[in-house]
Design goal:
2 copies of one chain form a homodimer. By secondary structure, chain A is of the alpha/beta class. Chain A folds into 3 domains: 44 residues, 434 Repressor (Amino-terminal Domain); 128 residues, Response regulator (Rossmann fold, 3-Layer(aba) Sandwich); 127 residues, Response regulator (Rossmann fold, 3-Layer(aba) Sandwich). The first copy, chain A, has 12 helices and 12 strands. In chain A, the strands form 2 sheets. A 6-stranded parallel beta sheet of chain A has the order 2-1-3-4-5-11, sandwiched between helices. In chain A, strands 7-6-8-9-10-12 form a 6-stranded mixed beta sheet, with helices on both faces. In chain A, helix 2 packs across helix 3 and helix 5 packs across helix 12. Chains A and B meet through helix 4, strand 1, helix 5, strand 2 and helix 6 of A and helix 4, strand 1, helix 5, strand 2 and helix 6 of B. Chain A binds a DNA duplex through helix 2 and helix 4. Chains A, B: Pfam families: LacI, Peripla_BP_3.
Chain lengths: 332, 332
DNA sequence: AGGGCTTTTGCATCCGTATGCAATCACAGC
DNA sequence: GCTGTGATTGCATACGGATGCAAAAGCCCT
């Protein structure tokens, strides 16, 4: 603390000005190569690193990105969080993690984020009101919705996977396998993921002139909700759950409570491809989200926006991939 | 950005000095009640909040706590992360999330944490070298190991659950139930959790003058490792896994690959009580870590240290609780 | 050698807030 | 009404670095 070396200390020690120390750390600054080398060497020796807080103050850019997470109990997100943090670090940002207190709107986090001069926000789970978004963006800060899409017209960029397309794949595979009585289990109704997956699933039926499959509302994206939903599925021979965690709960219900065999009696499909989907006890056939690509895209968009990219907001969609496992083996 | 209201703006508008605005936000400062009310009201109207970055600069305290996480793929940690973030927020801190790139020492994160003037660090999974710890603490910053204990003599505080005691409970329950051929499955060997759980498990045997149970090294704390380990368990009639995720992999192996019934043929116990342990498909009997209490203790220690508490480092242990489920029903 | 240029460097100042210190004010006691 | 005392307030400066601007130093050419 008192022992922390400052740019001034280093400058004095080297007999140069503090500005030069500052510039030596800015690759874009014009500094004689010899001088830069001398400074960086001395800095390394003294264990000096520019104070990020002070830099943030003058630059009006903190290089901190707020990560607003909810639903951390959905096993899809920990992996996202881990990779996102690493990717942000690699891009030169730090990640400030905010958890939305259950039931709250993400808008509640904005004041705290502004207070810490966060450059950008990545929102998963929770979304922003368009008023909140407009306010935030108006300040020259960036925001990206991850695995989510804004409902109304919005100035927010979003990155998600092609939920509808993935769900259509699920429906087509089930239909081609000759499954007759299909069911869709919806998750949290106010999420774009659940809505889009439902829409995509239905679209395959419409395209073939079939009547829409039965729909069960699980209420939210939890194991327990999936469990309950599956018990209402009656004699369905194919169930597409809005995400994996629902599907796992559903499979357990089907097998242990309803006494039905998966996949012989009933095929089960999920969405996300969380680690547990691959466990032999479940072997859940599912649609894999291209997480790595989604994260890369997110960061690219953030950086572009921070550099002032004036494009209108985009809703980027990356394709989901069907991962066949034991809970349903597609024909062919 | 340009539109951000500063304390000066507000002060000018109110015809007072900037200092008064600053003080109005400091509950300990002496400000006439009427003045404070007037300022806070105007602040609210103007949507003003003190710039945390600037405050951090003058205060030499950022009110940011670094959270160094690893093993985010272990479902025990997401819950910890979520609660920890909420608790830190409630205590007036922000959480900066750092992921240790796989295989790296947490020391690698310290420079970045210093750079952002983080007040304190909470380390889960990864640990600090004692040199790194000494350096960090010497700077007036705090650090706490969570769910981990330092191996050698160390100046680091730690909060964990009583792993040895919990493991002893597991052993005693198995022995009292008359299980004869017991096995301990170790996790990552260099973690205090695995070591202590093993030690505690063995101690129950020693106390009864029984020879030590068999030991299988899973290698790390993953589902797959647990799966592999269980296949080596032969005719064991009771297996205590160093944590839940190992136990789940083990149960699947026992049931689906080894064709053994749980709990009739073999009792299975885990440690942590992750959400999946409660799923009906597993119904894993396990030792619950008192996560909420551990987090509260962690924050309490952090705060005390930041206020200069000179106590020697403590290793706090909170008791684990046996949660009986279907994978092993203790006698009585 | 001198002029016109391009790099390098240093000087000052600013970012937005906190805080020690001195000035001011309010109010009680006499 | 005047002085003493404590509560309020304003002033000035510091925190650690970034950066516009001008001064200084090279450099190339005629």
């Amino acid at each position: 603390m008192g022992s922390a070396v400052t740019a001034r200390d280093l400058a004095r020690q080297l007999g140069v000005s503090q500005s030069m120390v500052s510039r030596a750390f800015d690759p874009a600054a014009s500094v004689a190569p010899a001088m830069r080398a001398r400074i960086l060497e001395a800095a390394a020796a003294a264990n000096y690193r520019p104070n990020g807080i002070a830099a943030a103050l003058t630059r009006r850019r903190s290089r901190i990105v707020g990560l607003v997470m909810g639903e951390l109990q959905n096993p899809f997100y920990p992996a996202v969080l881990e990779q996102m943090t690493l990717a942000l670090q690699a891009a030169g940002f730090e990640a400030l993690l905010l958890t939305v207190p259950p039931g709250q709107q993400a808008d509640a986090c904005l004041p705290r984020l502004r207070q810490y001069q966060v450059d950008a926000v990545v929102l998963t789970s929770a979304s922003l009101s368009s008023a909140g978004a407009a306010h935030w963006l108006g300040d020259g800060r960036a925001a990206v919705l991850f695995n989510r899409t804004a409902s109304g017209p919005t100035p927010l960029d979003s990155v998600a996977c092609d939920n509808a397309g993935g769900a259509r794949l699920a429906a087509e595979a089930l239909l081609e396998a000759g499954r007759q009585e299909l069911v869709f289990v919806a998750g949290r109704p106010d999420t774009s993921t659940s809505q889009e997956r439902e829409r995509g699933f239905l679209s395959a039926f419409a395209a073939r002139g079939l009547r829409a499959p039965r729909r069960i509302a699980a209420g939210d994206f939890s194991y327990e909700a999936g469990h309950r939903a599956a018990l209402q599925a009656g004699g369905a021979d194919g169930i597409f759950f809005a995400n994996d965690i629902l599907a796992l709960g559903g499979m357990d219900a089907l097998r242990h409570a309803a006494g039905r065999r998966v996949p012989q009696d009933v095929a089960v499909l999920g969405f996300d491809d969380i680690p547990m989907a691959g466990w032999p006890g479940y072997a859940l056939t599912t649609l894999r989200q291209p997480v790595a690509a989604m994260i890369a895209a997110t960061i690219e968009i953030l950086q572009a926006r921070l550099e002032g990219d004036p494009q209108p907001a985009r809703a980027l969609r990356l394709p989901a991939e069907l991962v066949p496992r034991g809970s349903f083996l597609p024909a062919g």
